[in-house]
Write a sequence for this structure.
């Protein structure tokens, strides 16, 4: 599934109109579907609708009319100056005898639900004046909020923090970049001709990001035939660890090994200076310094816990000429370019801090625009980039994929090591790097979601590894939760 930008959405709207499709029908469907979501979530609780003067406001005015017809008590506050379809929506509402009061006089009553129809994809720049005040008031007041298309104000501050958001026609990247502001997500079909969105997406110069959905990822799961043996389903080499002065994350390669096994690797070889004894299932290759012993593996994960040895591990691993995950201390531009030069498939797995170091910017800049940062790093290195965070972005060349799974309970030491091992197992099973990265990130995030729901905060990274098979089974069985509902 493609995620639309506001510009792409406007182009879709324009294309519908060029084909002769009446735009008022789109607005009518949008408002009607949003009213359906309202009723599903809030029943007959009274509504206070805040409508801007653009088409987002128009959607809100249509919703108000439909709620009214269903016997829901509705108060409406609207900006002045509607034109076009929004004006028609206003006239239709007035014809029902509804009093539409100015936004400036908006007030909120206990028991009400706020409908946020102030701004959608047409917002230019941050809110100020009466709009900023109103949004801050809505957030303070603590009533449930249903946002139409987008929580007003996004991507800037202040913006509405919604209980639920109904996206019209397609999701926008903002929905998945700002999950917290959107609350529960609904996708409303609003009657656009079936092929139109795909056509608009294909015509854009810069491709639209993908959303990683269960539907797209399930077919990527490596099959496990009855005749499988541990040498046939993907063997992984883990190279990392450090012996010397300074900080040591001696458990990092062990966690990567657990991630690989729990993602289905047949055999994991652990190459590290201290010959760790965990996990019992691994084959240990204690080495005094970063070197590559002879290994029969199909993929590698390199750099975890490598400290100052990280670069040397990565350069030693080049010799294996195998697909590789480069993580943590192996993340250096020089290393990435060496893999690109060698024509080896590689997946870089930086968090925002590591990505900033590679790009020569600050972590805030990366966090501000993770799609741009992941794309820039993928273009600069020619490799697949997994920019970790919420959301995690996977990039390869111009291709971008946004991951919808992942829980804040994953914000704990070692979960990134588990992810590296998991992606390496998928590479070893034969998946191309972009697909291995998308699938690994999705399942790792889903494992975090399952555990976060069950146990809350306080997870151990090894538990995330343990939950990977459950996540995988859910995806296999068609039961991985979708990040949204359709209306
Ligand atoms: N296919 C589509 O594209 C459809 C779009 N629809 C709705 O239309 C919305 C987009 O409508 P519009 O393009 O009219 O845009 P909006 O309704 O999001 O807002 C545009 C209005 O806000 C003003 N504005 C922009 N930035 C501002 C700021 N910072 N402070 C104060 N005022 C500001 C503009 O001058 C304009 O009047 C969508 O989000 C969706 O809700 C639906 O009606 C159905 C069909
Ligand atoms: N708030 C969050 N929401 C979702 N996922 C998160 C969150 N915080 C961290 N994660 C995930 O946890 C992992 C942390 O990786 P990383 O920062 O490399 O940690 P470490 O180096 O300790 O292993 C990443 O996969 C990241 O996406
Ligand atoms: K809105």
């Amino acid at each position: 599934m493609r995620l639309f930008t506001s510009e792409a959405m406007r182009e879709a709207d324009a294309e519908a109109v060029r084909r002769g499709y009446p735009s008022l029908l789109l607005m009518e469907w949008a408002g009607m579907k949003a009213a359906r979501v309202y009723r599903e979530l809030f029943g007959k609780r009274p509504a206070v609708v805040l409508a801007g003067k653009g088409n987002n406001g128009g959607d809100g005015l249509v919703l108000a009319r439909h709620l009214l017809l269903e016997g829901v008590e509705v108060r409406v506050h609207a900006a002045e100056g509607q034109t076009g379809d929004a004006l028609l929506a206003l006239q239709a509402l007035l014809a029902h005898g509804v009093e539409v009061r100015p936004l400036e006089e908006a007030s909120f009553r206990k028991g009400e639900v706020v409908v946020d129809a102030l701004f959608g994809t047409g917002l230019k720049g941050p809110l100020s004046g009466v709009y900023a005040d109103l949004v801050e008031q809505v957030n303070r007041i603590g009533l449930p909020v249903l946002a139409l298309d987008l929580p007003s104000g996004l991507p800037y501050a202040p913006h509405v923090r919604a209980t639920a958001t109904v996206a019209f026609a397609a999701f926008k990247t903002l929905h998945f970049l700002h999950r917290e502001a959107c609350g529960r997500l609904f996708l409303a079909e609003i009657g656009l001709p079936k092929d139109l969105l795909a056509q608009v997406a294909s015509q854009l110069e810069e491709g639209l990001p993908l959303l990683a959905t269960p539907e797209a990822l399930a077919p990527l799961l490596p099959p496990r035939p009855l005749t499988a043996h541990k040498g046939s389903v993907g063997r992984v080499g883990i190279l990392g660890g450090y012996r010397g002065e300074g900080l040591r994350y001696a458990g990092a390669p062990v966690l990567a090994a657990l991630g690989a096994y729990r993602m289905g690797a047949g055999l994991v070889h652990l190459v590290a200076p201290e010959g760790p004894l965990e996990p019992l299932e691994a084959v240990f290759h204690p080495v005094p310094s970063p070197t590559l012993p002879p290994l029969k593996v199909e993929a590698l994960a390199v750099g975890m816990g490598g400290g100052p040895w990280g670069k040397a591990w990565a350069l030693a691993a080049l010799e294996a000429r195998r697909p590789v995950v480069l993580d943590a201390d192996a993340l250096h531009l020089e290393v990435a370019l060496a893999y690109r030069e060698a024509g080896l498939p590689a997946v870089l797995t930086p968090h925002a801090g590591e990505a900033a170091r590679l790009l020569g910017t600050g972590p805030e800049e990366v966090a501000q625009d993770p799609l741009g940062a992941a794309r820039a790093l993928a273009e600069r290195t020619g490799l697949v980039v997994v920019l970790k965070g919420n959301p995690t972005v996977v990039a390869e060349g111009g291709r971008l994929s946004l991951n919808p799974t992942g829980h804040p309970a994953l914000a704990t030491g070692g979960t990134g090591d588990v992810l590296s091992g998991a992606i390496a197992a998928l590479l070893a099973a034969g998946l191309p790097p972009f697909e291995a990265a998308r699938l690994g990130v999705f399942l790792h995030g889903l494992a975090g979601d399952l555990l976060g729901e069950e146990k809350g905060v306080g997870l151990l990274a090894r538990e995330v590894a343990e939950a990977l098979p459950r996540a995988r089974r859910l995806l296999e069985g068609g039961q991985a939760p979708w990040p949204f509902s359709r209306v």
